[in-house]
Design brief:
- It is a single chain.
- Helix content is 41%, strand content 10%.
- It is mainly α.
- α3 packs across α6.
- About 11% of the residues have low confidence.
Length: 463
């Protein structure tokens, strides 16, 4: 899986910004190296703080060079990804009384890619083979693969590692068995004449397993001494404490969640790698879970019935597939964001109904790849399935719904009064605009509404 770092689109460094921290004031392109005695001294200190055995040798040094020199740009991406997974790893390891240093094992296994698949068929962050995963409670069928569920797979890995340690009473031996299987390790023990430690049976192990523990030690060293090697984390896609879980009690298409909550399919799939398709299935006697950004959990619960009833439209899928959401970071401007995605500032403003060039940290911007923003004159109505485009004047069926039209520097808008039972998605469909456009026009962070609330609607639909 180390070589796969070079090809994983999941770890595409172009979509990340590297931290500007620099503890030791190294030049940006500096690649620090140290003497053998320094490496040996640092690893000796690490060894004194863990029940595991951390040794230094040329094999360990080779993996230090791999992560700190050859693959350093990917190491910085993985450093950022640790903010997504390490808090959860540490909680689970602590629950099972396992050394916290084992949180680095998925870096060796999968480069922290929850959808990683080995040539042999191992899957997920912890690279479970199918029989072993099922042995420790991970379900795999045509709809789900719990080997790719970060939380469930981590708990299964803790159970497996604890079991392996009980066989050998040695963590390095447990790691060797995790990689090659207990049968292979037992054969190496017999061939070595009954030796019982990893380094004693080293020459009798398969070549891959000979590199496994050195890789683990090397990764622990590099990620514990990253600043000394001028390595700093990039901004992660999502931090652990920025998402939460909701229970799904019916079959649900994730495209409905994407359309109504305004979250991209890319982000949904990243947070929910357990599902093989866009469908979250409903199983008898088994709960299905959905991981969402915390700021959207309340929106999901408030619009739950609408999401379940929503019928996915093919044209909506095409829009979602070409759309990304960029979360503004500190120090970013519209011009720099536009340059990053190779779009114009005017397009960004039109897609997000911005009246100025000002953006704030945490603001979500829609990016539509390969599309030029439409002008007011040629914008067509986005109708629901079963509706027809009608450019003639229409009369509102519900006489209690009041809509007025205003013109401002930002373009014509209509004022809509929220009715009982309304949701942002229903209002957007009625007026031929998107949820994101309404939210941007009204500076809304969530999707919760109250009857009687006044909303500004871009005057470009059939409302």
């Amino acid at each position: 899986m180390i070589d796969s770092l070079m090809t994983l689109k999941f770890l595409d460094s172009k979509s990340y910004a590297v931290s500007k921290n620099n503890k030791y004031n190294f030049p940006a392109d500096s690649v620090p190296r140290y003497s053998e005695s320094i490496y040996r001294q640092r690893i000796k200190k690490m060894d004194a703080r863990t029940p595991m055995e951390f040794a230094y040798n040329e094999n360990v040094q080779a993996y230090i060079d791999l992560y700190a020199v050859r693959y350093r740009k990917y190491t910085q991406i993985i450093l950022g990804m640790t903010e997504t997974y390490f808090p959860m790893f540490e909680q689970m390891l602590d629950k099972y009384g396992i050394p916290l240093e084992l949180k680095h094992l998925p870096i060796v296994e999968s480069a922290l890619n929850p959808k990683a698949k080995s040539p042999a068929g191992a899957m997920g962050l912890w690279q479970f083979m199918l029989p072993t995963g099922k042995m420790f409670g991970l379900e795999v069928n045509s709809m789900i693969d719990e080997r790719c569920d970060p939380i469930k797979a981590t708990e299964a890995a803790c159970k497996y590692l604890k079991y392996l340690h009980s066989l050998y009473n040695d963590w390095n031996m447990a790691l060797a068995a995790y990689n090659a299987g207990p049968g292979t390790v037992n054969n190496a023990i017999r061939r070595s004449g009954g030796k019982t430690t990893y380094w004693e049976i080293y020459n009798y192990l398969p070549r891959e397993t000979q590199g496994y523990v050195p890789a683990f030690i090397g990764v622990n060293y590099v990620f514990s001494h990253a600043p000394e090697h001028n390595l700093y984390p990039v901004e992660p896609r999502k931090r652990y404490f920025e998402y939460d879980t909701v229970m799904v009690d019916r079959e649900l298409d994730m495209t409905s969640i994407s359309v109504i909550l305004g979250i991209t399919m890319d982000e949904l799939k990243f947070l929910n790698p357990v599902y093989k398709t866009n469908v979250i299935p409903k199983f008898e006697n088994k709960k299905s879970y959905l991981y969402l950004p915390k700021d959207l959990v309340g929106d999901f619960l408030a619009n739950e019935d609408t999401i379940y009833k929503h019928k996915h439209r093919p044209e909506a899928e095409a829009t979602i597939a070409s759309q990304k959401v960029h979360v503004v970071k500190s120090g970013e401007y519209l011009s720099t964001i536009a340059s990053r995605y190779n779009v114009s500032v005017s397009d960004l403003k039109a897609w997000n109904n911005l009246k100025s060039n000002s953006v704030s940290k945490g603001q979500r911007l829609v990016i539509r790849s390969g599309e030029t923003a439409p002008t007011q004159e040629n914008t067509a109505s986005n109708n629901t399935a079963g509706s027809t485009v009608n450019n003639t004047k229409t009369t509102t069926a519900n006489s209690s719904t009041k809509t007025s039209t205003n013109t401002s520097k930002g373009g014509a808008t209509k004022t809509y009064t929220v009715q009982n039972g309304d949701s942002l998605w229903l209002i957007a469909q009625k007026h031929g605009v998107s949820v994101e456009e309404i939210k941007a026009q009204n500076n809304l962070r969530g999707t919760s509404l109250q009857a009687g609330q006044k909303l500004k609607i871009p005057a470009k639909g059939n409302g």
